[in-house]
Every structure is written in C-alpha cells, then in structure tokens.
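Show me a record, fold above all:
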Amino acid sequence: MNTARDPETGCLLWTGAKQGPPGRDDGDRYGCWGGSDGSRYAHRNVWEHENGPVPEGLLVDHACHNRACVELTHLRLATRAQNAQNRAGATSVSRTGVRGVRLMPDGTYLAYVTSGDRRFARRYPTESEAAEVAIKVRKHWFGDYAGGD
C-alpha cells in the first residue's frame, strides 16, 4: 500500500494518487485507490476492506481531519450532518479566524453554533471567551463529532 506514517499525528498518510473534494481543490486532497471499478477514495476502501460495505446514508469520516489519512483507527462512520460538524477550524470567510466566533460592530464577540433548527448565539467581551463557549456548545451538542477548534 502507498502509505507513510506521520509520527506526530499517528496518521497513516496515503502517498499514492490524490484528488480534491468535488467542486473544489484547495490542496486538501483525499487519497484515491484505482480499482477495477474506477477510482475510489482510499479511506473508504480501507474501511470496507476491514468492516464491510458502508451502510446506506453513512459516510466514512476522518476523526483526525486529515483527508489523506487511511489509518483505520482514525476512521469512523458518520451521517452527513455529523461529517459536516466534524470539521476543523474556522471557515475560509471567517474574519476572526476562530470557528464559531464573529466580531460584532459594537466590538463584542458573538459565539454561535447552528444545527438544523437549533441556534445558539451569545455575545462576549473577548474573542477567547466567545471561542471557549462555542467549543463547549459544539461538544455538548455534537459529542465526538464536535470537530476541531
């Protein structure tokens, strides 16, 4: 298998062919496994080899947030919603660079978390206070799928 171990993270990194997620290519690429049925994501191939087919409606999620990782202990099944919540860091359009924190016009910081119909939003005097609360709410709501800071 085309892999190399990252001693710091424990990730087993796919060193073979890679491709970006559908619709974008920011350099954060999934490992690809070329099989008789065409190219497949390497992490999904590893999961199915060890655990059988992925049930309908579920995805293979990287708990480590590294799309090139094929370490079985870093992979788990997730719904689309869980997979979306389990992202690392702020979005690319974040002005604060902190996930779930916005700087408001009055100089306060808004901690916010959303999921379907659930909404959490509170203002705090400092960015660090808002970030701490956003992390706590995500962990409370999403547990192991709360994602990275």
